[in-house]
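Support case: user asked for a sample of complex input and structure output to validate their parser. Sending the pair below.
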Amino acid sequence: MKRTFLLLLALFVSTMMYAENFVMIKVKNQQNLQELFAKQDINIHYYNDNFVLATAENLNENMILLDENSFASNELYFIVYCNENEQSNYATNEKNNMEVLYSNADMMIVKPLNANLRPAKNDGMIAVSNKTAKLAVAHRDFPSVAEEDAKVREFMNQVSIENLTATVEYLQAYEERYYNSTKAYDAANWIQEQFDNLEVLETEQFPVSYYGNACAPNIIAIQWGTKNPEEYVVCGSHLDSYSYSGMCPGADDNATGVASVLEAARILSQHSFERSIIYCAFGAEEVGLIGSAAYAEYCAEMGMNVVGYFNNDMNGYLNPGSEIHIDLIYPNSVEAIGEYYMNLANVYFPEMQVRQVNFTQGDSDHTSFNQNGFMGIYPFEDYQNYSPYIHTGNDLIGPSVNSFEMSQRYAQMNIACVSTLAVLDSESVSENIANNVAMFPNPAKNELTLTSDYNGNSEVQIINSVGQIVKEFSFITEATVDIKDLNTGIYFVKVVGENTTTKKLVVE
Ligand SMILES: [Zn+2]
């Protein structure tokens, strides 16, 4: 009894000692943002070009105090995008679910009181957790492209309007894919099946939860790179849809993005690339970028080298009177990926207008990658005139997806960006189809067996997730090796024989 009391007292005292303030700090420019990240006495949980959200022990005149005792009773705060004209309505509707801490013309920062908090009608929300945000590494390896590449153009030419239409039709027919509904799970399973049908991708369901409740999972499909499997080029979309009330077929938001990603997988999986490519369909985007945040955090924790992330969210609504163009959304901290995208757009569609826009009224899954120190970009249909039908029962082919020609263009740009960065491996003539190497067991513990159909010498490298070679050997047709010295974790087994095969190995 006494011991329990002392423990409780200690807990109470330590909570008091470390009680920190949840604050907003306006960001003046990039240099200022870097200075804020360098400060020892604040911990940044979220940033964009305009402000950071942080915990701080001591307040100063640059800080706007949002909550004294940060993360004391809540595991998340939310940035809720909502136009100022609609804010009082929204606040009235959600008054039992949240407390408003701050608001400006475009958004509110709120503290949820339960798991029932809903996004405002149109523009989504971002969950901000107690984790520390990371700035992107300043230098990332984006090539500068002077002229078009015949193979990349060939991939782009394979994007089929028929396929895009079929995917959007299929997904809108669910009528809703609310993040934790049965139909969202069905949609996730269907997307996984489409990846599995390609046979060469390794797919997995990555669990997603929101306030401890399970949501439809992320579907992750990996195409292993042949030369640099530990470097990843990622493209993604979200599979859930949302409406404040009633149906949400989510054709534009975001069956179109899923269609772009599936089409990229269909086309690129028929070829070998030096880097690994990851195709994603994220769950629970609409309620705070929950699925992508979990996955991007996982990538950061595993030390994965994500070279770039290309987001696909809403690309089928062309504002009447406008020409097909691309509005690029990314923070200035990841300028390098913005320049890369514009470079490729210039090379492949020199007539098309592509511009960086300062979108302050919504967000998408690229932000999850940016908050975890990677470089993510979001090519958006139009930051001022996007589909007025999203998050309603009219987000359908016809009113809301009115230009599959535009969807095709976005899907082509996604493929150009991903395939150029992943680097076509012209030596691997097997084109992924012939896979003559087997590896078992997997997961493995003490030993690992490899077999190959090739009668010559196969050179093997076991590489850890940060790219270091931890074991090297060679064999002819079959070998069993001792792996007791390998730590638990993910490895790549690269086998170079007649051609190059790379497999993921999990060591337990
Ligand atoms: Zn969306």
